[in-house]
Write a structure and sequence with these properties.
The structure is a single chain. By secondary structure, the chain is of the alpha+beta class. It has five helices and 14 strands. The strands form three sheets. The protein has a seven-stranded mixed barrel with strand order 5-12-9-10-7-6-13. A hairpin with a 2-residue loop joins strand 9 and strand 10.
């Protein structure tokens, strides 16, 4: 993490505030704290704040504020982080079917890592993943902390269709596709859980700062959960993290 934030111009209406050059929980915590502090100010000149892994982008109205104003506002917010309270992180269990047509790249990941498929599954579901940020589409969680042993690169050529609920890995990240879309991550499983639903409030099941734990399930169990979800009779297991 940088000793001081770096300010990068992003056109005439936005500034990127960068706090580090690596993905780690301390840097991401700083990003979320500053985002919360800026949001609490309700400054009419700030249009939107978009947090990422290690930086945040501040969109502003150039008729009200300048880049220098943004730097001053951010610097002031950084002086008051001790008074910022973030929501207590939750852990959400996501039942997941691994391999077969649910996870067509599981065999390739196992071969690349030189370990059995069962060990890939154990490594993937054996930890809680921090939701570092949401993007590149509505509801897509970028989850850091994947075991380096299975941190396989993206596909050389993206698929034109990735089914909703697919669980993928890319480098030391894992994630869940909230809707059908093209994508280049290695697909190792699938979950019936609707992580994004535009008709719900909030529409996304989790937010940055939460944690996700993947729980192995059979195909039959996943389909039964899918039926319960469709009937409005299923909710995920959620607990607060100590």
């Amino acid at each position: 993490m940088y000793e001081r934030a770096a300010f990068l111009t992003a056109g005439d209406r936005a500034v990127v505030v960068e706090y580090g050059d690596a993905i780690d929980e301390a840097t991401n915590l700083r990003v979320r704290l500053v985002t919360a502090a800026l949001t609490a100010r309700h400054d009419p000149g700030i249009v939107e704040i978009v947090p990422t892994y290690r930086s945040l982008m501040v969109h502003y109205d150039p008729l009200r504020l300048s880049r220098a104003d943004i730097e001053a506002i951010v610097a002031d917010a950084e002086q008051h982080l001790a008074g910022v309270t973030l929501p207590r992180p939750r852990v959400i269990d996501i039942p997941t079917v691994y391999g077969g047509h649910y996870g067509p790249d599981l065999d390739d990941v196992a071969a690349w890592a030189g370990i059995p498929k069962d060990e890939v599954i154990a490594l993937h579901c054996g930890r809680e993943y921090l939701v570092y940020m949401m993007g590149f589409m509505a509801g897509f969680p970028y989850l850091g902390g994947l075991s380096p042993r299975i941190a396989m690169p993206r596909l050389p050529s993206p698929r034109t269709r990735v089914p909703t609920g697919s669980v993928g890995i890319a480098q030391e990240q894992t994630g869940i596709y909230p809707t059908e879309t093209p994508g280049g991550w290695r697909l190792i499983g699938w979950t019936p859980v609707r992580i994004f639903d535009a008709t719900h409030d909030p529409p996304v099941l989790f937010e940055a700062g939460d944690y996700i734990r993947f729980v192995p399930a059979t195909g039959g169990q996943a389909q039964a959960i899918a039926s319960q979800i469709a009937a409005g009779a299923w909710t995920p297991t959620v607990r607060h993290r100590e």
